[in-house]
Amino acid sequence: MALDTLKSALPDYAKDLKLNLGSVIGNSDLPKQQLWGTVLACAIASRSAKVLTELEPEARENLSPEAYTAAKAAAAVMAMNNVYYRTRHLLSDPEYGTLRAGLRMNVIGNPGVEKVDFELWSLAVSAINGCGQCLDSHEQVLRKAGVERDVIHEAFKIAAVIQSVGATLDAEGVLAGV
């Protein structure tokens, strides 16, 4: 199982990550599509080849082809949006906020899966990429759709753990000269 492989690859000092990885993925109450779409989108957003290599096959197995594609699309479009909206928000000149983005984001309107699932995946990726404006936007859409805070909380816990596992494994690879 991919989770066991990732957990065994983590160094002893990252015992908490081992436990958290098993907890947020292995014991999640999210429906299978929400869980594995979040896992896949976050694995992509983590930019860790090791994490993506280990988690992608299980995500593919647990997602329909449409959900698999939509999770990848969420990671792709949010990689762009998170940079754009975070930058616009961080600049001290408020005039940038009045300019039209002019960036294609059609997949957000028609993701090929339930809108709530895509929004959840977009929120999780935004957590990894640190875009407060996107986090607020996706959280508001989810809450208006009736999604409970504990579901949203679950998604960004998954994001936090996957990101930290990727950072730790990548650092260990560099330190080991791999």
Commentary on this structure:
This protein has nine helices and no strands. By secondary structure, the protein is an all-alpha fold. The protein has one domain (2-97, 104-175): AhpD-like, CATH 1.20.1290. The longest helix has 27 residues, at 149-175. It is globular, with a radius of gyration of 16 Å. The model has no long low-confidence stretch (mean pLDDT 95).
Strand and helix layout:
Layout: H1 2-9, H2 15-26, H3 32-45, H4 49-62, H5 65-90, H6 106-109, H7 115-129, H8 132-144, H9 149-175
**Secondary-structure element string:** HHHHHHHHH
- Full CATH superfamily name: AhpD-like
Largest sheet: none
Helical residues, percent: over 70%
Whole-number average pLDDT? Answer: 95
- By CATH, the topology is AhpD-like
Q: How many helix segments?
A: 9
Q: What CATH architecture do you see?
A: Up-down Bundle
Let me know the number of strands: 0
Low-confidence region ranges: none
Please give the alpha-carbon distance between the first and last residues. 23 Å
User: What is the CA-atom radius of gyration, in angstroms?
Assistant: 16 Å
- CATH class category label: Mainly Alpha
Question: How would you sum up the global shape?
Answer: globular
Could you say how many structural domains there are in total? 1
- Helix/strand-derived category reads mainly alpha
Quote the beta fraction.
under 5%
